[in-house]
Structure formats: C-alpha cells, structure tokens
Amino acid sequence: MKYSRLTKEQFEELHQEFINFLSTQSITADEWANLKANKPDLAEMELDVFSDLIWEGVLNKAEYLEHISPQHMYLFRLGDDKMHALVVTLKNEIDITTKEGYNWLRENLMDENVEFLQADKDYTDDKNLDKFKMIEQGAVITKGDLYRYFNKLIN
Predict the structure, then answer these.
(1) Structural domain tally of the chain?
(2) Are residues 69 and 120 in the same domain?
(3) What DSSP letter does each residue of 92-150 carry, written as one string?
(4) Cα separations (Å) of 55 from 1, 24, 60, 70, 133?
(5) Is residue 155 scored above 90 in pLDDT?
(6) In angstroms, what CA-CA distances link 69 with 93, 101, 138?
(7) What is the pLDDT of residue 105?
(8) Tens digit of each residue's pLDDT (9 = 90 or more) over 83-123
(9) Do 97 and 125 have their domain in common?
(10) Alpha-carbon Rg for the chain in angstroms
C-alpha cells in the first residue's frame, strides 16, 4: 500500500464509490461478503487498493496545503514542477493557533516579531507521495485563501 488505509468513517462516506470500485472488479455484494468471511487477506488488499486510488485522486487535485503551529504558519502552493512555500514565523510567545493569537497576528503583520520567508522546493520522483507525507505531518488541503493573502502581502 502506497498511502494509508481510509478510516471507517471515510469508507462509510465513500460507500457508493466503493461499491462501484468492486463492480469494476466484477465483485458482487455476495462475493464481497464471501471474501470478507473466507479470504480476509484478499478483502484487506481490495480495501488497500481502493484507499490508494482515492488518495491518488485527492492528491492530484490538491493545489494548496497549510500547516499551522503555535509560532509558524506554513503555506504551500503545489505547482506542477515544484511547491512554493510561504512561512510566517512569530518570534514572540503569541500562539496563532488560538483565536486571540491569530487576531494579534492579523493586527500586527508588520510587527518586528513577525517574519516572512518564502522558498521553492522541488518534488522528489513521486510528487503525490511528497504531498501525502506533508499531510501525515499535519498539513491540511485548503482552497489557498491564506496563501493568496500572504503571497499578495509579501510580493
């Protein structure tokens, strides 16, 4: 398995897609029940293949990632050839993961305790795996509103 297995909740959300996936493999509902009961290893493999297919689709469509920690905001635009990172760093004890801390940042963007950095980063041979590893480390897929805001502010 290349990524990680979907959670039970994710499988429930994607129930119809999973049924369609099984039907493309010519597996009926009865055959699926039989697989789960009598060949659990094979059923597990089907769950893993489906999970990887879903992850590939999601990662192919992802354009922006964000990872926000108490003193850092990492904002990424996921380009075709490389990713562009904007990093906002607080050099004081303000915690931007709280409402108060985030409001402080919004009102004090030009404060000496706020530092902006930006850089490009090349992908490895597997662009989607690079994105997935960032998600595993806490990044979330977004629509890019914060990235665009800070990119306009900095540039």
Answers:
(1) 2
(2) yes
(3) SS--TTSHHHHHHHHH-TTSTTEEEEEEEEE--S-HHHHHHHHHHTT-EEE-SHHHHHH
(4) 11, 18, 8, 28, 12
(5) no
(6) 12, 11, 9
(7) 93
(8) 999 999 999 999 999 999 999 999 999 999 999 999 999 99
(9) yes
(10) 21
The Cβ of residue 101 has, within 10 Å, a number of other Cβ atoms equal to 17
Distance, CA of 125 to CA of 25 (rounded, Å): 30
The rounded distance, in Å, linking the Cα atoms of 55 and 126 is: 13
* Per-residue tokens: 48: 């893993």
User: pTM, whole model, 2 decimals?
Assistant: 0.86
Q: By residue range, what is the domain housing residue 49?
A: 8-61
Asked if the structure places residue 72 within a domain, the reply is yes
Strands 64-68 and 140-142: antiparallel
26, containing H or E segment: none
Residues 124 and 57 occupy one common structural domain: no
Are 142 and 92 in the same domain? Answer: yes
Pair 137, 90 in one domain: yes
